[in-house]
Specification:
The protein is mostly helical. The protein has 2 helices and no strands. The radius of gyration is 16 Å and the shape is elongated.
Length: about 70
Amino acid sequence: MDATTDTPNGLLRNRSAHMDNLQRLRTELPALNPKDAQRAENSMANLMQQVYDIDEQLRIKSQQSAQWSAA
C-alpha cells in the first residue's frame, strides 16, 4: 500500500471504492454469461478479502491511536 492509502482516510476511501465495485458486480451478475459470472464472483471474493484486510488495518490503527492518547 502506498503512503496516501496508509492513513485512515485513505483506507476508508479504498474501502468505499471496493464496496461500490462489489455493488456494481452484484447488480450485473444475473445478466452475465457463466464464464463472466465466474470471473465476477472471483473478483467479488478478492474485493471482499481486500475489505477485510482494510478493516484489520483500521482496527490496528484505532488501537494504536487509543494507546497513544492514553499515554
